[in-house]
Amino acid sequence: MNQRLFFSLIAASLVLAAFAHYFTDHAIFQFVTAALAVVVLAAWLGKSTESVAHYAGDRIGGFLNATFGNAAELIISFFLVRDGLFEMVKASITGAIIGNMLLVLGLSVLLGGLKYKEQKFNAKLAGHNASLMILAIAALFIPAVFLRELPVVKIESLSIVIAILLIIAYVLWLIFSMVTHSDFLSDIDPQESEPLWSKGISILMLALSTLFVAIVSEWLVHGVEYISHTFGWSDLFVGAFVIAIIGNAAEHSAAVLLAVKGRIGGAVEIAIGSSLQIALFVAPTLVLVSLLIGKPMDFVFTPFELAAIAASILITISITRDGATNWFEGVLLLTVYIILGTAFFFV
Amino acid sequence: MNQRLFFSLIAASLVLAAFAHYFTDHAIFQFVTAALAVVVLAAWLGKSTESVAHYAGDRIGGFLNATFGNAAELIISFFLVRDGLFEMVKASITGAIIGNMLLVLGLSVLLGGLKYKEQKFNAKLAGHNASLMILAIAALFIPAVFLRELPVVKIESLSIVIAILLIIAYVLWLIFSMVTHSDFLSDIDPQESEPLWSKGISILMLALSTLFVAIVSEWLVHGVEYISHTFGWSDLFVGAFVIAIIGNAAEHSAAVLLAVKGRIGGAVEIAIGSSLQIALFVAPTLVLVSLLIGKPMDFVFTPFELAAIAASILITISITRDGATNWFEGVLLLTVYIILGTAFFFV
Amino acid sequence: MNQRLFFSLIAASLVLAAFAHYFTDHAIFQFVTAALAVVVLAAWLGKSTESVAHYAGDRIGGFLNATFGNAAELIISFFLVRDGLFEMVKASITGAIIGNMLLVLGLSVLLGGLKYKEQKFNAKLAGHNASLMILAIAALFIPAVFLRELPVVKIESLSIVIAILLIIAYVLWLIFSMVTHSDFLSDIDPQESEPLWSKGISILMLALSTLFVAIVSEWLVHGVEYISHTFGWSDLFVGAFVIAIIGNAAEHSAAVLLAVKGRIGGAVEIAIGSSLQIALFVAPTLVLVSLLIGKPMDFVFTPFELAAIAASILITISITRDGATNWFEGVLLLTVYIILGTAFFFV
Predict the structure, then answer these.
(1) Chain B residues touching A311 at Cβ < 8 A
(2) pTM (2 d.p.)
(3) Domain holding B130: CATH number?
(4) What ipTM is given for this predicted complex?
């Protein structure tokens, strides 16, 4: 996209959201403008991260991309944790995982599949992703199974241990996929494109975009609380389907675009990589951060969320296992997504 | 089989069942004769469907076969729904799914495996079946997890949404496997055999056999209610192991015969295809039909049924994944079937 | 290892354990010495079994190895059953399964992977193991799901049926893997080594080592009861993590050694084979034996144990499916093991 147009869009959406927040009382208007601004700003944050990563070199850049790829999601969740909206945080983690695996991957596979009869990608990568996803399932189910009957203090201790183990596993995964076994996993071609900005500007951009995402995220969280009361939507539905979609919109469109261009491997890597990052990095980080700010959040998800995550992971593993996709597999993913969305809506 | 013999058998079993129903009071005799007649008539219905499908051309014929392949099961279940025997309907759906996956596939793989050291089939087909099976698991588990605590009206709404989504997914699956990707999935050789009857006779046969299956199914349902009271068998056991076996006997023998002839691919396609048809087409159709006749049945299965279906699907996926079978895999399938049968019997 | 050193070690550990048991009152000292003696004696029992198996010929030897491979575990569990410590027995079965799949396989894969970039093994074997593991999951979950609400007498009956079915399946598996399909499954090179002892001595060794394992196991069980009270550890934790590790230490080190020597196939076969043997042979045998000695134990595991076993099996299947391993897969297995250990500790 044209740079001038891009920055005009950023400025316009920021001004609109600020106007709505400071000068009007119309909650739905405030929510919609904040949501739009977050989507645009998250795209900006993504581009800035990529640009800084470019100058940081392959390895550190890869780490940066992998760690800040879900920065917007992380920032929004931080404000939810601060406000004690733990149910909504966990729902938005759930929603981000299933949204990436079912909605984004489903749309990518379906739209790509309508154009190409069969799209192939690196099956070895798919195998590793499957193992990581099962670690994620285990890490989320075990506390839920074990901790229902435990006193609060034990739930907290176990939550912390699991959070630390997951972050270690995630860091080792980055080392594995970028250092020791980088040669036989990646499927995205090395980025041939020149970065948009100079090194100094890139860092400034990253700082600015993060700041603005943080500011507007706070507005969004206020709006969300109001919206869920007004429409009578449950925290579960709002977190899993409204916040998760807003926080991940930028990445979602990137994955779908790659699939339509015939690069399904890249789309799979973004969709599943982002899910894993949420489960193995964002979620445990939030648990640890919640302790630091004195609002301890545990790692115990509801049976609804666990069922949704397990269903998503199982069907995603089944579909990506063979390293080939077709349109009907997209239909399957989207069907499960719509079933889950309906179920969350009714709860 | 000789046609004359076949029709003599149909006539004899019909007359016997009618005699038992109208002129005797012996419930067990009525039940046994009705069961026998249903088995024979279901075979006739199957042959008539195939014959009509032959004249309808490849595609529409394929749809016909796929849609009416479980017509007998559907008709019997309809009468159970009409009588409000929802527990037995769901149990018979469960029984048909696990019976196809464990009993039929198990016998086919075991008997085929005693003759051939290893039998191979199209692994791509197995992969697609696995994904559809996981959709089936998700569709059956999600309402059970979410709906236990919901008011009845929400359970009904969600049941309808899921039923419609599953039927759409099933229709798209037929389009996928018969239209857009027919070339790389099928494993059954094109049927070289001539149809038994002319076009007009075939349609008449289909109408007649459907009518007789309907009549005798109603007798059978009456008998079943009596039998389960007399022997103290639970609805769960009767539905899952008595009705399911009677309703699917014709197909079952067809699959086993193919396996013994070395065509394990055909046996797998019948056994798993039939399971999927029950889960993704028969079950949701019954939910929608139950609404139309004013006896709304929901989509919530018991934990027993869900555990049985999940166990069957997991072991079937594991065994068919590699596109090769041997006798021991048949033993595994049958062992799980016997364990489940014993468990259902004791409940 | 040098034979003289080996027997000195056996003698020393036996004398020490006997001294602690008969002449001191210090429970922790008694427990530690008994534990050490069991580890050493189990290694002796293992070597004796191998040696007898050598003289018995390939097939019967294979059966012997497969059946008495977990003799130490079986003997310890027998004493636990006799003392009515059913919770601890089931926990130790759970611990042996997850210890083999996660700790042993994890260490083998990690240490092997630090030396070799990728280690390959027979993927066909992995596929068969996966199917057997799913049978094990089904066999352990089905009673738990079905039996919670049943009267005790039905739980016992179903437990017996399942135990017998599993033993039959296990025997058929041995026939399959050693008789009918021995050619395309095994991954361990035929043992080229000469046996250590003559035929007569080997049998004597087997008898003696079994006797001593039995004697010291009883001391160990006494110590364990005391230890768990003193430290306030739950039966679950002691069974699953203390007893399971002591009872399987000898095998564990054998598997890890093979992996480091580059023979990951052998390590996988030991680790997974041992798990399957526990689930499909040791556990059902204990159920049947418990009846014979008038202390009937059922087959109903706790949700914690089932969750732990399911998590272990799923991640093991995912990692071994492709017939290749690397260091990060070891990290994944060990991470799940540590998470489970922490969770069991807190319960």
Answers:
(1) 134, 137-138, 141-142
(2) 0.88
(3) 1.20.1420.30
(4) 0.86
